[in-house]
Amino acid sequence: MKNKLIFLAFSLWLGISVACAPSEKPENTNSASPAADSPTDSAAAMNAEDKALWEKAKGLFEALPEKIPAPEGMTDTPEKVALGKQLFHDPRLSKSGAISCNSCHNLASAGVDNRSFSLGHGFKQGGRNAPTVLNAGFHTAQFWDLRAKDLTEQAKGPVLNPVEMAMPSEADVVIRLASIEAYQENFKKAFPEAADKALSYQNMAEAIAAFERTLVTPSRFDAFLKGKGEALSAEEKKGLETFIGKGCTACHSGVAVGGKMAQKFGIVKPYPNRKDMGKYDLTKKEEDKYVFKVPSLRNIARTYPYFHDGAVWELKEAIKIMGETQLGLVLDPAEIDSIAVFLNALTGELPPDARMLPELPASGPKTPQPAI
Questions:
Q1: 96-145 pLDDT, tens per residue?
Q2: What percentage of residues in the chain have a pLDDT greater than 90?
Q3: DSSP helix/strand/coil, 360
Q4: Which residue from 209, 211, 213 is spatially nearest to 158, judged by alpha carbons?
Q5: Cβ distance 340 to 316 under 8 Å?
Q6: How far apart are alpha carbons 123 and 93 in whole angstroms?
Q7: Which of 27, 66, 72, 164 is catalytic?
Q8: 174/217 Cα distance (integer angstroms)
Q9: Three-state secondary structure along 122-188?
Q10: Selection from 24, 28, 23, 22 nearest residue 342 by Cα
């Protein structure tokens, strides 16, 4: 009985996002998704100053589409997405039966757990900050060191990682999923061409990736990019101008406002934490020392703490550090405030379906019981 109570308490702790908001976050005046465009809201109705900024922004960024396109040769069917949503939220993909993808990439808190390092199997702590899963399909590669080429490859990693979900092998994962009768049917519906071989580790990862490609979060900035000048306040437009003018777009541009390249962290001034050598740990190439994927800045006001080591909890402090380490700039408080105001406008909203928890299928007689 005592063990059951401990497990229940642990599961509730993992499933609920309880994060203390930073004391110094830019105020979000309106994070609602942009409304549909109308002719009167088009770029033609902008004043000259706004239109010039809009033209500049269009050359650097892209508005989010409704969904991330599936890779060539794949189709994201409703059945595949629904299965992926179940798997994303199912703790039975972990050895303990207590940790799901959502434990570290909580959709209730912008796809992160708001911890410097996530807690995994046996309360072990990971070595890098968990990046947000929102809009991740727009990235050129996955993980801080870019070791996974896409979402499917990324989804395979944590399940077998001994520090994270700790399943012993791909075969063990398949056996566990097969012990749940409804999953056998759901895999066949999602992968009808595979027939009796539908339930596989590869297809598990593909289904999770299909669901993750629906996690697109349009913001007021996207409405501005589509020509709706009033979508951003005067202060946010000033922040966008500062963001561009100071050179932040050298790395943070495109549809995800980042995520498209790797860069050395500490180009001008070394970052204080030199323990994690980034991509170098994989390649052992000198040029890869302290090289990390440039993160997306979408939803950045909610995805604290910041950087690969989760060491910085305040957005304005992160902006200050980036100016010094990457650009060689000592930004004054007004410039930092201005950029922070703009970055807050990148906070978007999940699609309605992604906000709802799925119903998970019942375990079978051979499904292992949770055991921490």
A1: 999 999 999 999 999 999 999 999 999 999 999 999 999 999 999 999 99
A2: 86
A3: coil
A4: 209
A5: yes
A6: 16
A7: 164
A8: 32
A9: HHCECCCCCCCCCCHHHCCCECCCCCECCHHHHHHHHHHCCCCCCCCCHHHHHHHHHCCHHHHHHHH
A10: 28
Closest CA to 116 of 137, 130, 102: 130
pLDDT at 1: 42
Res. 35: pLDDT tops 60: no
Q: How far apart are CA 179 and CA 185, in angstroms?
A: 12
The single residue listed with the structure tokens 């520090």 is: 163
Q: Is the dihedral of CA 182, 185, 188, 189 positive or negative?
A: negative
* Residues 308-323 pLDDT 10s: 999 999 999 999 999 9
CA pair distance 308, 294, nearest whole angstrom? 10
Q: 């077998």: which residue's tokens?
A: 160
Binding-site residues for heme c sit at 101, 104-105, 121, 248, 251-252, 322
Helix, strand and coil content of the chain, in percent to the nearest 5, comes to 45, 5, 50
Domains and CATH numbers, the chain: 2-6+73-216 (1.10.760.10), 47-64+218-344 (1.10.760.10)
Beta strands in the chain (DSSP E): 262-264, 291-293
Angle of CA points 128, 355, 106, to nearest 5°: 15
Distance spanning both ends of the chain, measured CA to CA: 14
Mean pLDDT computed over 287-296:
98
Catalytic (active site) residue 212: no
229-255 pLDDT per residue, tens: 999 999 999 999 999 999 999 999 999
Pick from 219, 264, 262, 238: nearest CA to 61? 219
pTM of the model: 0.88
User: Where does residue 14 rank: exposed (0-12), middle (13-18), buried (19+ CB within 10 A)?
Assistant: buried
Can you tell me which residue has the tokens 């994989």?
A: 282
